[in-house]
């Protein structure tokens, strides 16, 4: 498997994104660094740490489920092959998102059925971290 680099996101699913954003940003003094109609991302630690608390509007989710954690790796294809060979249940094939489709990911289930994400971000593959 491609080397695990860092936790990219911890996701919080909510019915009221505005209220959750206000709670976490004020309670922990976390700055808002990204926002769209589905997710707001708050920076945890320095920007070099890359850890984010992502507040997800559950009204945008299919089936009401969402990842709990996002693990960043250098090589998504290598990681996906590893998961498949290990017999780990993967909910998705490798997908892309972002303004230039630069974020590449797949989701998997842990032994308790929780959904988690493995992602390859351009910041790490291009040495921008």
Automatic annotation (TrEMBL):
<dbReference type="InterPro" id="IPR029068">
    <property type="entry name" value="Glyas_Bleomycin-R_OHBP_Dase"/>
</dbReference>
<dbReference type="Pfam" id="PF00903">
    <property type="entry name" value="Glyoxalase"/>
</dbReference>
<feature type="domain" description="VOC">
    <location>
        <begin position="6"/>
        <end position="121"/>
    </location>
</feature>
<dbReference type="InterPro" id="IPR037523">
    <property type="entry name" value="VOC_core"/>
</dbReference>
<dbReference type="InterPro" id="IPR004360">
    <property type="entry name" value="Glyas_Fos-R_dOase_dom"/>
</dbReference>
<protein>
    <submittedName>
        <fullName>VOC family protein</fullName>
    </submittedName>
</protein>
């Amino acid at each position: 498997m491609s080397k695990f680099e860092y936790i990219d996101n911890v996701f919080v699913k909510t019915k009221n994104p505005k209220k959750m954003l206000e709670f976490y940003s004020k309670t922990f003094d976390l700055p808002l660094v990204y926002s769209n109609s589905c997710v707001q991302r708050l920076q945890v630690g320095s920007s070099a740490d890359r850890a984010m608390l992502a507040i997800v509007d559950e009204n945008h989710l299919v089936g009401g489920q969402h990842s709990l954690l996002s693990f960043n790796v250098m090589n998504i294809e290598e990681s996906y092959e590893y998961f498949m060979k290990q017999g780990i249940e993967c909910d998705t094939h490798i997908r892309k998102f972002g303004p230039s489709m630069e974020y590449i990911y797949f989701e998997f289930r842990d032994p308790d059925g929780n959904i988690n994400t493995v992602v390859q971000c351009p910041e790490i593959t291009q040495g921008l971290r």
